[in-house]
Write a structure and sequence with these properties.
- The chain is of the alpha+beta class.
- It has one domain: Alpha-Beta Plaits.
- It is built from two helices and five strands.
- The chain has helices spanning about 20-30, 50-65; strands spanning about 5-10, 30-40, 40-50, 70-80, 85-90.
- The longest helix has 13 residues, at about 50-65.
- The radius of gyration is 12 Å and the shape is globular.
- The protein starts with a strand and ends in a 7-residue tail after the last strand.
Length: about 100
């Protein structure tokens, strides 16, 4: 059974290819969802997959951020799966 998680990563995460790094890792794990900038220091990842894949994906994102990025806080919330397909970089909620 698929699970869905919303992960918010705060720190130095813009202008360092953070979203592209997340997209590349997401494609490798074949997870579904999106990544987007929420604020100047906040990236949101909304992702769904089988529980073990989902956990490995999040662990990989946190273990391998872009070299210039800095992760200060991570908040993860479980949500109801929506059976989305594919992974995309969504438009930012604010201009970056």
């Amino acid at each position: 059974m698929r699970e869905r998680r919303n992960v918010r990563i705060r720190g130095f995460v813009q202008g360092v290819f953070f979203r592209e790094t997340v997209r590349r890792i997401a494609l490798a794990y074949e997870v579904a969802g999106f990544v987007r900038n929420v604020d100047y220091d906040l990236v949101e990842i909304d992702v769904e997959a089988e529980p073990d894949v989902l956990e490995a994906f999040v662990d990989d994102v946190l273990a391998h951020p872009p070299s210039q990025a800095r992760v200060d806080e991570v908040h993860s919330t479980a949500l109801a799966p929506q059976d989305v397909q594919g992974f995309r970089v969504a438009p930012s909620l604010r201009a970056t």
